[in-house]
Amino acid sequence: MPEKSLANPQQDEIRSTLLRLRTEQERLFLQLRSGEQRFRQLARSVWRVQEDERRRLARDLHDGIGQHLTALRHRLDQLPCAPGAGHMLAEAVGLCDVAIRETRTLSRLLRPQVLDDFGLTAALGWLARTAGESSRLQIDVETHDIPADLDSELATLLFRVTQEALANVAKHAAAQTVVVSVDVRGDSIHLLVVDDGCGCDVDQALARSGAGLSTGIASMRERVLLFGGRFALVSEPGEGTQVRVSIPLPERSESA
Ligand SMILES: Nc1ncnc2c1ncn2[C@@H]1O[C@H](COP(=O)(O)OP(=O)(O)OP(=O)(O)O)[C@@H](O)[C@H]1O
Ligand SMILES: [Mg+2]
């Protein structure tokens, strides 16, 4: 009997300590969640600023240097050819053409106008053509049920991930063909980039990127996580490589 009366105050104390600890744990958890949310918002706005800056640079390149080069090209065309100077003039025209082409490509790679004007499917088609021409890869793009009003940041994210995945194929895979597919299933959008190249040791590739020795995989993964999505690199040496991404679609507002 006396033992029981002793145990009760102890139990009460333990109970109240546990309650205090649980309340404290919940408070810390909420603090962590809101810190994480603030970090994501901040990282997304840094990314938005970066994309805006790229858009501005792309426009300046196209409308500034690009237009001047085109004007220069016209002048060269109109120049009367002095005797014996034909070869030099042809060389100058050739150099001018290369500079115009490179300026256009650089401007489009920085921020393709087609992404803003015609959306993700058109932009991926353009990317596949450009990357295919420069790397001699057969790149097929398949898109299904992409909403016409797809969030523009999400479209940019999927475009950038595809751009890096294709750069990796061109650089490392020694592949013949690549298939890029985007489709909507349930309330998520899925991107898959599959190549038939030499593949790689995924653990090694992730270790390289985790140690800061490379940026491609890390930047794809981090951006996808910022949008609450999932990223996976699937590969075996000799078996090709797959980049798999799925991202929840933003909820539509009632009025939309
Ligand atoms: N499609 C692929 N085929 C074969 N290996 C790949 C492929 N994609 C990635 N890898 C391997 O993963 C590694 C890491 O890729 P990541 O994009 O992070 O770096 P990187 O391309 O070497 O350099 P960076 O992207 O920083 O210019 C690569 O070095 C390569 O070994
Ligand atoms: Mg890379």
What does this protein structure show overall?
By secondary structure, this protein is of the alpha+beta class. It has helices spanning 2-78, 86-110, 113-118, 120-135, 152-173, 202-210, 216-226; strands at residues 138-144, 177-185, 188-195, 230-235, 241-248. Helix 4 packs parallel to helix 5 (152-173) and helix 5 runs antiparallel to helix 7. The longest helix is centred in the N-terminal third of the chain and has 77 residues, at 2-78. The N and C termini lie far apart (69 Å). The chain binds adenosine-5'-triphosphate and magnesium ion. Adenosine-5'-triphosphate is lined by residues 168-169, 171-173, 195, 197-200, 205, 208-209, 214-217, 241.
What's the arrangement of secondary structure elements?
Elements: H1 2-78, H2 86-110, H3 113-118, H4 120-135, E1 138-144, H5 152-173, E2 177-185, E3 188-195, H6 202-210, H7 216-226, E4 230-235, E5 241-248
Parallel strand pairs: 1-2
Antiparallel strand pairs: 2-3, 3-5, 4-5
The chain binds adenosine-5'-triphosphate and magnesium ion.
